[in-house]
Design brief:
The protein is of the alpha/beta class. It is 34% helix and 26% strand. Strands 1, 2, 3, 4, 5, 6 and 7 form a seven-stranded mixed beta sheet that branches. The structure holds flavin mononucleotide.
């Protein structure tokens, strides 16, 4: 089963989470701008992550999601995450990504996962990379259980 992590990142925070998750999964981490149809053949597990920008996923992530076809992810297990600030009102990216992946036929194997940064451009809070490692271990277990 091929696994893949797709992410967008301007300031490196989402990339760091994506690379940490990818390392645990033994999967490549691919920038959303480079993710094309060739990445979907034989795919068993996909994890998609984006920063929240202006309350929603980044423009590039939205474009990627909008290009997914109905049933394109049928038979693929999936999980979504975002990076965000720790404010009472922050918007959402992971939940929106998860919904589109599920609509494209993916079987979601984890709740949408937030990771927190200290300011508009980061850095990540202490402990977030460890949290990403633990989350990736959970995803790995869940993807082999079903
Ligand atoms: C222009 C801009 C808009 C942002 N809007 C939000 C937002 O609406 N909600 C939120 O929680 N964080 C927001 N953030 C914080 C980013 O989500 C956070 O810094 C993220 O980790 C950046 O990811 P990156 O380092 O991978 O680019 C914003 C940051 C920038 C620069």
């Amino acid at each position: 089963m091929e696994s893949l992590v797709i992410y967008d990142s301007n300031h490196g925070n989402t990339r760091k989470i994506a690379e940490t998750v990818a390392e645990i999964l033994g999967a490549p981490a691919v920038s959303v701008s480079d993710a094309g149809p060739e990445h979907f053949s034989g795919l068993g597990l996909v994890v998609v992550g984006s920063p929240i920008l202006g309350w929603k996923p980044s423009e590039r992530t939205q474009a990627f999601l909008a290009a997914l076809k109905k049933e394109q992810l049928k038979g693929v297990k999936a999980a979504a995450f975002d990076t965000r600030v720790k404010l009472f009102i922050h918007g959402d990216a992971a939940g929106k990504i998860a919904k589109v992946l599920a609509d494209a036929g993916a079987e979601m194997i984890s709740e949408p996962q937030p990771f927190y940064v200290k300011g508009k451009e980061g850095p990540l809070f202490e402990g977030e990379l460890e949290k990403a490692r633990d989350w990736a271990v959970e995803i790995k277990r869940a993807s082999s259980r079903f």
